[in-house]
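Lab notebook, page 48
Experiment: co-folding of the full assembly
Goal: obtain a model of how the components sit together before planning crosslinking
Operator: M.T.
Materials (sequences as entered):
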Amino acid sequence: MNRRVFSREGWIRLGVIAAFVIAFEAFCRAGFIPRTVVLPPSDMAVSLWHILQTGEYNKDILSTLRNVAASAVLSVTFGFALGVILHALPRMRATLEPLLASYYAVPTFMFYPVFIVMFGVGSGAIIAIAVLLSVVAMIASTLTGLDRIPRVLRKTAAIYRMGTAKRAVLIDFPAAAPYLFTGIKLAFAYAFIGVIASEFILSGQGIGYAIAYAYNNFDNRNMYGLMLLVILLATAANTALDTIDRRMQSRMRRQ
Amino acid sequence: MTASDGSDVHARLTDVTRVFDLASGAKLQALGPIDLDIKRGEFFGVVGPSGCGKSTLLDILAGLSPPTAGTVLFEGKPIKGVPDGVGVVFQEDASFSWLSVHDNVAFGLRRAGYDAAEIERRVTYAVGFMGLRDFAKAYPAQLSGGMRQRVCIARTLVLQPRLILLDEPFGALDQQTRLLMGEELLRLWRETGATVMLITHALDEAAMLSDRVGVMSARPGKFIDFIETQWPRERDSRVVSDPHFGEITSRLWEKLRVESLKTMGTAAPGAAP
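Observation: model returned without errors.
Model output:
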């Protein structure tokens, strides 16, 4: 089958990004933006290549990726479990739902002193903040997914004489899968933000810490190289998850 | 209508009622009392005004919902839960969107523990029978509403049910597709020899497909008339051009109009005060 790698919109999007990068490069090279403030994108790329080649920041990169993975896994696991429990307990859900709805109005990062006391400076506190930031997205997506299961599928499960556990595995969770995957995507994005942001204040290691360290030491080259790395990692991960999400949505969309 | 001789009775409802407890604490009688015999191999249609309890009747026969009072027998045994040998097709799209057409149809067979060769044989037959052979690998989202309903019928068919309950299965389809799907349903009924109960709001569908049509009253639903269509077993949608078809639909509408007006809270014009 002849599959197109990019849609028309994809090419346009790529064109807009390329135009922006070229314009940015031209502005920097022409001196409209001083190099002491921002490096031209090509210099950022060269710096990133140097960082990857020398392996100078490998420990930081690995530490960040490990923390993001741990936070995302914990958020998805707990978020899914809590979502299922809340869905099964309507009274508890009615009590907690207003709190969940306004959850993201609370600046989660303000709790960092509490987590330092609990886990010390390092991965424990970082993961705790990232989980706190991302778990609610998974809870909300799980609730939405379970709410949207058509009633007729529950009747169909009854026709096949399925118990609750079988129905959950064979009908409910697959039917809710597109919403659950959206939750996974959001949980990963929030976990990434939570980890990088926490590393600025809660760590002696990680990409966030390395960016802050470079900034404090006027090391623009490494700072922008690492910032480019964060952008590329987040974009690559999000694009991959988004592709799976869109495929799932189009395959399972009910008309 | 209860047959005096129970030998050819496939399903029997005796004095069945269904009362729902409302959130306000009040009680709502949705159905009954109903006495009904469905004969083995019969194509039995049910029509009635909206909200008269047609789907409740189907749920009770399918074992999805117990009656508040009365007895329900299938093949001479009381129904407790969904009995073996009963298949149901709902009005809403009940296809599994995460499975291909093939896997949708194979779902019940896998659950029942059939071996792979038997599953393949039955799925191939059912998919072919419902005209879905070229779409076996497709997912429901890639199919039209009519084709998705065929997937659901095929999924029911593979388990070779002896009693097939259809709850307005073509309700969401356009008129032409409904007529053609009706023909396929007749073909399925003839080939399998199963007993069929079809619930429909379309009088022409009931008149064309059924051996006998039961007309239900406004809530609480009871059978107020049974009409024998007297069609031959070998029939298709062309019976709609038979003058007898018009007589059947007229009689159905005559009964149903009064009941529908009751549902709407309006007195029937021309009816005796």
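Interpretation: The CA atoms of residues 211 and 232 of chain B lie 8 Å apart.
Next step: discuss with group before ordering constructs.
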